[in-house]
Amino acid sequence: MDETHPSPRSLTIYDVARHAGVSIASVSRVLNGRNSPRPETRERVLRAVAELGFVPDGAARALSSRLKEVVGVVFRRPVDEFSVSDEGENLLFVDVINRGVEIAARRQSFSVLIASVDVFDTHPDARIDSVAGKSDGLILHDPLLSAEGIGRVAKRTPIVTLAGSVTPNSVNVRVDNEHGIRELVRHLIAEHGYRSLAYLGAHENSPDSVARGEAFAAAIERAGAEGISGPEWRGNYMADGGARVIRNLFARNGSLPRAIVCANDQTALGVLYALAERGVRVPEDVAVTGFDDIPVARHMRPQLTTVRQPIQKLGATAFDVLFSLINGERPPGTEIVLPTELIVRGSCGCPAETAVPWD
Predict the structure, then answer these.
(1) Largest CA distance in the chain
(2) What's the CA angle centered on 276, arms 272 and 281, to 5 degrees?
(3) Which of 51, 213, 247, 248 is deepest in the core (most CB within 10 A)?
(4) 336 near 321, Cβ under 8 Å?
(5) What is residue 147's three-state secondary structure?
(6) Left (φ > 0), alpha (ψ -120 to 50) or beta: where does 239 sit?
(7) Residue 65 has what pLDDT?
(8) CATH fold match for the domains 8-66 and 177-310+342-348
């Protein structure tokens, strides 16, 4: 038997998908007559079926009919006693990621089921299990499950994590936090001469915040500068969390560092607001930076120096990896790291960008 044409008995819909150069979802739609696949796709699948001599048995038909063409996305909703109600709904970063997932999923005729759990929910397993039961695969933001929990769910549902931890049973997609923070701190010290810098982080169990904090500490140590961090310099990824840290600093008569490196842009917005309340000038008195480069960062005065990450691409990449796992393909590795880019603007002391018009 030709190695490229296995015995019809051993053929699966995965073989048909590979031979036709289409996804398993497309094969499923053709075999089951669902969702009106494009004529050219239908022709390729039927030609592959004929060329391979594929005869779907009961197991193959059951497999194809079980494909829901749905991926589940679960994220943490940051609501705590410090958040005002309208800001609690302003999930800029998460929204853009989920938009990337949705756009990539639409290309494969998949739907997206989105669910959330509270940021302080330490037992989200039941919620995640519910979403998993309705999906062909899961995308989990942040550390929603332990490695053991991921292993349990992954026995029946492929999993991709976003800004999570590497496990043997999932693929993690993140950005290069270390490079981004290293370049930012180098710029603040080498280009501006700042010697006292603080890191204003987020939730203590957030892998992104932890990674950025560790990269900050390492860069500060290499430069021989003064680095400030700790529980009193911990926000919540929201503007009100950043403002709260600064107000508490003034309340205890603490001294301001020369530069404040924030875990994300929304935190930096709150810092800028709280500093303005006290008449502290940015960047003349204190430099402030962010991470993400959300659209509003370039419209502020001063414009925000930040680390740009490809937010929408994170979501699209997570779906593409998950889709390959659903198709039975070998994962590209346990972790995929996307690049970051330092964006210098006025809030660190650099010249402001040319004014950006409102669309």
Answers:
(1) 81
(2) 85
(3) 213
(4) yes
(5) helix
(6) alpha
(7) 52
(8) no
Integer Cα distance of 169 and 188 in angstroms: 39
- DSSP string covering 10-77, please? G--HHHHHHHHTS-HHHHHHHHHT-S---HHHHHHHHHHHHHHT----HHHHHHHHH---EEEEEEEE
Before 207, cis peptide (omega within 30)? no
SS3 category, 137: strand
Nearest to 46 by CA among 19, 82, 12: 19
Among 3.40.190.10, 3.40.50.2300, 3.30.110.170, 3.40.50.970, name the CATH number for the domain at 70-174+311-338: 3.40.50.2300
Radius of gyration of the chain (CA): 24
Sign of CA dihedral 314, 315, 320, 324: positive
List, for the chain, all residue ranges whose pLDDT scores fall below the cut of 50: 1-3, 8-9, 59, 61-62, 81-85, 88-89, 354-359
Round to whole Å and give the CA distance between 204 and 222.
24
pLDDT score for 83: 45
CATH 1.10.260.40 fits 8-66, yes or no: yes
DSSP-derived secondary structure letter, 201: B
Q: What is the torsional sign of CA 72, 73, 76, 77?
A: negative
Q: For 177-310+342-348, CATH number? A: 3.40.50.2300
